[in-house]
Write a structure and sequence with these properties.
A hairpin with a 2-residue loop joins β2 and β3. This protein is globular. α3 packs parallel to α9. The protein contains ten helices and three strands; from the N terminus they run ααβαααααββααα. The chain has a three-stranded mixed beta sheet.
Length: about 220
């Protein structure tokens, strides 16, 4: 029994670590979410492209929308935001979330969707490994290539082609802001046919993109 426990623990540590090291160089072929969505009937549209082939405005839009302090975090966490969420929970309020781009990359790359405690613990285990073993530019490159922008639509290139009929390298600031705006709910919101809320959110993101430019040193 001791041997089984030890081997299981070593497997739990070694396999994710090996994959993280591999995916630092090799594009991930798939993610659990892609498989889940395919089974749900949403299809699978994805075209991996290097970060140099993605318009810089999309990186700025995603950082402005999701994680202003992406370049300044330690171990991939926003500890200030985490403290605020703990305080909100202790005061009986509903935490709004403090997920960083590195945390979302870990979740999208290895885990399933949801908010259950097991997934959150695994996400917290994987996030610092990615933060320590990958440069920030690689974190952003993988994130922009695997994140879900619509039902069955993954990554910047597939989204740009599907919603705007152009490659990701030619996205405008407005189009990048629309793509970033749908990230919290890509199954219900559309960058190609945005409703009033998505349009309003994209406008806010576009304004914030100008404000966060001084914070983008790690990905320029």
């Amino acid at each position: 029994m001791r041997r089984i426990i030890l081997r299981t623990a070593l497997l739990f540590i070694a396999v994710p670590l090996a994959l993280i090291l591999l995916f630092r160089i090799v594009p991930p072929p798939a993610t659990p979410l892609m498989v889940i969505r395919l089974i749900e009937g949403h299809g699978w549209q994805r075209d991996w492209v290097p970060r140099d082939d993605i318009a810089p405005v999309l990186a700025a839009a995603v950082i402005a929308a999701e994680d202003n302090l992406f370049c300044d975090q330690w171990l991939g966490f926003d500890f200030g935001a985490l403290r605020e969420q703990v305080d909100a929970w202790s005061d009986g309020e509903r935490p709004r979330g403090a997920s960083t781009i590195t945390m979302q990359t870990a979740k999208n790359l290895f885990l399933w969707p949801g908010r259950d405690p097991v997934r959150k613990v695994l996400e917290a285990w994987l996030t610092p490994q990615i933060a320590l073993l990958w440069p920030r530019g690689r974190v952003l490159e993988v994130y922009l290539n695997i994140v879900e922008f619509g039902p069955g639509i993954y990554g910047a290139e597939a989204a740009a082609q599907r919603f705007f009929g152009k490659p990701a390298a030619r996205l405008s600031s407005r189009e990048a802001a629309l793509l970033a705006a749908v990230l919290p709910n890509p199954l219900s919101w559309s960058a190609g046919e945005p409703g009033p809320y998505v349009l309003q959110r994209a406008g806010v993101i576009e304004r914030r993109m100008r404000q966060v430019r001084p914070l983008l040193g790690c990905v320029q």
